[in-house]
Amino acid sequence: MASGMADEKAKARIEKQINENLRRVYEETLTEEIPDRFRDLLAKLKEKESGK
Questions:
Q1: Terminus-to-terminus CA distance in the chain, angstroms?
Q2: Region 20-46: what's the mean pLDDT?
Q3: Stated pTM of the model
Q4: Cα–Cα dist 3/10, whole Å
Q5: C-alpha angle 33/52/46, rounded to 5°?
Q6: Is residue 34 classed as helix, strand or coil in its secondary structure?
Q7: Spatial separation of the C-alpha atoms in residues 46 and 27, rounded to whole Å
Q8: How does DSSP assign the chain, residue by residue?
Q9: pLDDT at residue 35 is higher than 90
Q10: In the predicted model, what is the mean pLDDT of residues 3-31?
Q11: What was the pLDDT predicted at 52?
């Protein structure tokens, strides 16, 4: 029984660490600058759409 509880605690710690890392990477991604080539592409798409 004690082994089962230890396994559950270890699993919970690992899941917590994974969740924290995923949140950190997500937050970092949100603050990244959009590359110029994507901005240019978006501008072209908007021009094309407004020209309809």
A1: 69
A2: 95
A3: 0.56
A4: 10
A5: 5
A6: coil
A7: 27
A8: -HHHHHHHHHHHHHHHHHHHHHHHHHHHHHTSPPPHHHHHHHHHHHHHHHT-
A9: yes
A10: 95
A11: 62
Residue with tokens 């919970």: 12
Tokens of 33: 């600058």
Q: Supply 36's token pair.
A: 């110029």
Q: Which residue has 């089962």 as its token pair?
A: 4
What is the token pair recorded at 27?
């937050």
Q: According to the model, what pLDDT value does residue 4 have? A: 86
Structural tokens at position 18: 């994974």
Q: How far lies 26's CA from each of 7, 19, 20, 29, 52, in Å?
A: 28, 10, 10, 5, 36
Please report which confidence band the pLDDT of residue 40 belongs to, taking 50, 70 and 90 as the band edges.
very high
